[in-house]
Amino acid sequence: MATRVMIIISVLLFLSHPLLAADEAQSTAEDIRVEATRPNNSREGRPLPLACSWQSGKFRDPTCAGWRPANQMKLIEKGHHLLPWFTHPPREGDVPSDPVDFLLTYYDEPIHNARQLRLPLTFIASQWESGLSAEPYLSLPPNENPNVIDVDGKILPQVSPFGPLKPWREIGRKHTDNAWIRKLQEWYPDPPLVVFLSNNEHRKLVWREVENSKRYLEKYGKGRDDDAKRKVVADGWIERYRALQEGMREGLDNPNWKNNAVFVGYSAFGPEFIGRWGGWVHYSLHSQGRINPYPLMWDGGSPSYYTHDWNPSRDDTMWSPQVEFMNLVFMQERAYALNRAFWLEISVWDGYGGPQREKSYPAPRTLYRMQGQTYTPERYRGFVQFGMWLLRPRAVREYRGWVFPWDDKDSWEGGASYFMALVHAVDRVYENPILKQWWRHGELVPNRAHDHPYQAGIPAEYKDEDRWFLLDADVNAQEFPWELHWPVNVFSLALVRGKAPVRKWLVYAHSPRCDRTSVKLRVLGYKDIVVDVSVGGSFYLVDEKLNRVTLVE
Known about the structure:
The protein is an alpha/beta fold. The protein has a domain at about 20-130 and about 155-270 and about 280-300 and about 325-440: TIM Barrel (Alpha-Beta Barrel). The chain has 16 helices and 19 strands. It has helices at about 1-35, 70-75, 100-115, 165-175, 180-185, 215-220, 225-250, 255-260, 295, 320-325, 330-340, 355-360, 365-370, 375-390, 415-430, 435-440, and strands at about 50-55, 85, 120-125, 145-150, 155-160, 195-200, 260-265, 300, 305, 345, 345-350, 395-400, 445, 490-495, 505-510, 515-520, 530-535, 540-545, 550. Strands 2-3-6-7-8-10 form a six-stranded parallel sheet. The protein has a five-stranded antiparallel sheet with strand order 13-14-15-18-19, covered by helices on one side. Strands 1-12-11-9 form a four-stranded parallel sheet. Strand 16 and strand 17 (about 530-535) form a beta hairpin. Helix 2 (about 70-75) packs parallel to helix 3 (about 100-115), helix 14 crosses helix 15 and helix 15 (about 415-430) crosses helix 16 (about 435-440). It starts with a helix and ends with a strand. About 45% of the residues are buried. Mean pLDDT is about 95; it is low at about 1-15.
């Protein structure tokens, strides 16, 4: 009898397993939908993060199939908190880089799955405006041409902030008013959010070269100061990029897509490098009263939290994304003041571009290995989590090349284990109730005992902004200011809640090179604590009333 009962129970469990899996997928999808559409200033606190990528598996190469939307849906069904992403469909008249039958397969089932789960969508593009510097626009008469016209009347293949608006709206509409996008709207008519993401790297007139522009000279003449030049260029971009985006919105047939579309640009935030060297001002669009124009120019931005393979930035030195992104904290506050719905995500990269790129640009992980270090997914997770908890962005988007293998041939070449390390960092915020509450409600603690080491040419209006959040640690240099090449053995920050004498802090710390024991960290406004710090990152809850430090598992 007992055996018979056990068999019946086993059968029932077997039959119910698909339902349990479906329930988990629906629950995860609901989390994704709610957090993706939650306002920045929600009563419930900050929106929880989502994981995503720039690599969309757009080519038929089977090695990168793991990045495709079909696999994304499988990961969501397993309980991972992904913001689904697709390559942007080709414009009307463009020749697809892949056969139509492949593209239909690429979009069809995942879009229908997304509809069933009511998931938000992302469409990744190169540069929407790049078509303006090609035919038929490049040969338009000067008064109709959106490109730069130099002082000799020559038309250059780079867009201008002083040209006519009509082509910008027109090129925008071409990206959405086409058969491919209409088909997607038909398949999924009511997405809660549609993010249109631009790589935003098309060549454009830079402010320091405006006196080479005929249009600029006709309107403003020579000799204006740099602040004025940056402002008029930024104002021009605000008007033109908004015209492009409105063209894209107008090209959408479905009112749900129109209303729920947001337009996000890579690097449309910052500058994170403010103060690193005197020449930073040449690459910035700050002007009096405005650190950057991006919240007025875009619905969102995705600054690069990169250890590049073309410069010396590393995850274990002062010249690091961790140090640079501390500059973005006050800029984030100013962005929300200009545009309270601004979608701030971060793009992350460990600098590895694959074997071919390694021949010209050795990746940081290659250089680490030459120094006797290792670069594991765990180290990557520790690095990424610091940026996450510093800014608490809407999404964490990993960069990889367009044809980058998903499967790990070994721990060196494939992308799956590194991307999943990022995904697990995001999932942990949902799964751990302590981390969830601190993400929503914690207040970042500035370290006012020291200035940020980047101090070159800081405008007077930003000199008193909090830009340094690294906790003092006994394993780091004790002499200030730090030099660019100096090692940083432990990166740590703290969030605080409550008022003295019953405050609590959440401390995050990671040690890029190796696990460390008995590290002394100074919690500002409280006292020193002694903790163990792992490569993958460690969280501690500090309770002032109980005088207790507890590891958050």
